[in-house]
Amino acid sequence: MGSESQIPEWASTPCIMGIDEAGRGPVLGPMVYGCLYCPVSYKKTLSTLEFADSKTLKEEKREELFESLKADETIRWAVDVIDPRVLSAKMLQKNKINLNEISHESAMGLVKRVLNMGYLLTEVYVDTVGDPEKYRIKLTERFPSIKFVVAKKADSLYPVVSGASIVAKVTRDHALQNWNFDETAENMHRNFGSGYPGDPSTKGWLEHHKHSVFGFPSLVRFSWGTCESYFKGGVEVLWEADEADDDGSSKKTVKRQTKLSNLGFTGMKRKSEDIESSGKGRCKFFQSRKLEQLSHF
Amino acid sequence: MKGESIIDLGGVNSSSAVDLTDQIHQLPCCIKFNGPSPVSHYFKPKSTGVEVDALNVKEAHFRGRKLQGTTVTLPHGYSGFVIGKKTPAKRKASDTNGGMTDSWQANAKFQNITLWNHDNLPSKEDAFLRAFHWFDVAKALHKPVTADDMESASNPGATSTD
């Protein structure tokens, strides 16, 4: 999503871009990466447009500024909306991808998209929560022709990043307001508050929407530590993907997991976690197809 | 030796039997729960349009994990059954093995199953689908030998003439 009008003439002149994110911390909803770009020569005008860190602006002001930047012929914008299902899935897959990596890929995706459209990006300003220098090197290696400025709190230092933060924040707010639940359970509602784990509305929403078997609706980021406390007393679910978890704290799970895949038919009473048959002790044909003979169950 | 298990498949072949075709899923995890659950309200498989090994790939999420799966029709002549333990009726005196007989009955029947992998695309090399190979092997092993088969086996060079 982003500006859809034709490529302006200024695209071929040196351009600057700001990149910022909204919804990194919340336990629910999408994480949005937004960018704003314009000619280098527009930098001065940009600083007169009242763009400020989106967190310091009231919702109406953010909406108003978003509308005005959309109408500005010398400004273009784009967003990458990362679905909570994608966040959960990537962070919980066998080869787990952490949030920083997802964030970096998203930001780089925006740069690539704008370059591919034909804009001559020469300076890109990026907000980060991680180590700015490491991130700057990563970005420079990927896009050698661009000068990157990576800084913590860049959204309050550079107007072009403030603008990007407004784009990202308004997009996330709209995505939440218009969220269509995949789930069709009864009594679901959208009073999820800010989505931050400490927000009383968010807490109430999570408590109301938890389910002992399914956990939560897929709006929730299952990979967030916050979810654990809500799962207490819920149904335990074991995954083979967690086997590779080297984290010492989850040793108990690891042990049980190993059993799940290695234990075959031993003649002992099967435990509920020994879900897989193995064909152990039979000829290879059966073993490789996990076919075992059951005379009693 | 343990006692025998008896499975009664009668009753599911009538038209009033519960048919769970399109509703049976095999998940790549262990859910430590047995009982009813609002599956259709939370578990929403979607077609991806992708095809692997001529299998239509579906996508779903469970507990934040992305699952990729495919629905396979059981081979012709085979059915799947959901069986449950029969509540013991009055035991006859002739039941000599003293309650060692396990009695099960089929509660529902199904003609397809959706197999789900975590992270991996479904493939015809997945163990569950490979298990279907046994059907052909079993057929070859147990097919009655006809007189013609005997004939051709004892006279390998013989050709049939009219």
From TrEMBL, chain A:
Coiled-coil annotated residue ranges, if any: none
GO MF annotations, alphabetized: metal ion binding; RNA binding; RNA-DNA hybrid ribonuclease activity; transferase activity
Tagged with keyword Zinc: no
InterPro entries linked to this entry: RNase_H2_suA (IPR004649), RNase_HII/HIII (IPR001352), RNase_HII/HIII_dom (IPR024567), RNase_HII_hlx-loop-hlx_cap_dom (IPR023160), RNaseH-like_sf (IPR012337), RNaseH_sf (IPR036397)
Catalysed transformations (reactions): Endonucleolytic cleavage to 5'-phosphomonoester
The organism's place on the tree of life at top rank: Eukaryota
The UniProt record lists the keyword Acyltransferase: no
EC number: 3.1.26.4
Reported cofactor(s): Mg(2+); Mn(2+)
GO BP annotations listed: DNA replication, removal of RNA primer; mismatch repair
Pfam families referenced in this protein's UniProt entry, alphabetically: RNase_HII (PF01351)
Cofactor: record remark: Manganese or magnesium. Binds 1 divalent metal ion per monomer in the absence of substrate. May bind a second metal ion after substrate binding.
Residues involved in a divalent metal cation binding: 20-21, 127
Keywords: Endonuclease, Hydrolase, Metal-binding, Nuclease, Transferase
All residue ranges annotated as the RNase H type-2 domain in the record: 14-236
Gene Ontology cellular-component annotations: ribonuclease H2 complex
Matching PROSITE patterns: RNASE_H_2
NCBIfam families: ribonuclease HII
Family to which the UniProt record says this protein belongs: Belongs to the RNase HII family. Eukaryotic subfamily.
Stated role: Endonuclease that specifically degrades the RNA of RNA-DNA hybrids.
Name of the protein: Ribonuclease
Source species of the chain: Helianthus annuus
UniProtKB/TrEMBL annotation, chain B:
Xref: CDD domains: RNase_H2-C (cd09271)
Superkingdom of the source species: Eukaryota
Gene Ontology biological-process entries: RNA catabolic process
Signal peptide residue numbers: none
InterPro entries: RNase_H2_suC
GO cellular component: ribonuclease H2 complex
Pfam families per record: RNase_H2_suC
Protein name per Swiss-Prot or TrEMBL: Ribonuclease H2, subunit C
